Amino acid sequence: MPRVTEAGAGYTWAGNSQMNRLTPWSNDPVTDPPGEAVYLRDEDTGQWTFVHHPFTSPVDGHEDLIDSDPGATLSQHYDLIWNGWELGSGSIRIHRQEIQERVFRAMGMSDDEARAKFGWFLEALQMGAPPHGGFALGIERFVALFAGEANIREIIPFPKTASGSDPLTGAPAVTTQERLSELGIRLANPESGSGR
After folding, report:
1. What letter would DSSP give residue 154?
2. pLDDT in tens, 137-160
3. What CATH architecture applies to the domain 5-163?
4. What residues contact residue 80 under an 8 Å CB cut-off, 6+ apart?
5. Are the C-beta atoms of 183 and 176 separated by less than 8 Å?
6. Strands, DSSP E only, in the chain?
7. Residue 48, pLDDT score
């Protein structure tokens, strides 16, 4: 049986090593899974950032590491792998407001910034969310495998809204000049046609 290996930022894979081409089906089980870190250090800024998403709960007993050693904090994150393809992914979510606030602080967010970006979520946690998790299957990955495609880009569906907006979270939201610079985006003034 193959051991789980880590490939890329936070993804664990198992099965055969020929991940870029389709081969006969393999149902090799994942054994000895390594814990996945909650955080990794951004090479450009030196700040801690999330590996899966900032709402992934740390493993029980790792809550104190959020403040003292973020890089050693392991997450409750899971993947379903088949023949080298990640078919599904999920995690146990943070359900305690104080833990979520500590995660945001470890990532360099002030309390005000966290409230501005994620206030809707922090308020929901304040109401007493039960322990919960989620797991989503990537249907497009199944379709790609069954269709014999080597890349899911060949069968990706349209976005859920024509405008690309998310009515629940209000995304896209206002951003900072630092984030725009990081992404290489320059805003143009439509009246003058010049960038800022």
Report:
1. G
2. 888 888 888 888 887 777 766 445
3. 2-Layer Sandwich (3.30)
4. 86, 87, 88, 89, 135, 137
5. no
6. 5-6, 12-13, 36-37, 39-41, 48-50, 74-75, 77-82, 85-92, 133-137
7. 87
Structure tokens at 22: 């389709």
Closest listed residue to residue 39, CA positions, set 74, 3, 63, 67: 74
Please state the domain extents for the chain.
Answer: 5-163
Q: Which of 85, 105, 91, 100 is nearest to 21 (CA)?
A: 85
Distances (CA, A) of 50 to 74, 89, 167: 11, 15, 24
pTM of the predicted model over 0.90? no
Distance CA 37, CA 52 (A): 9
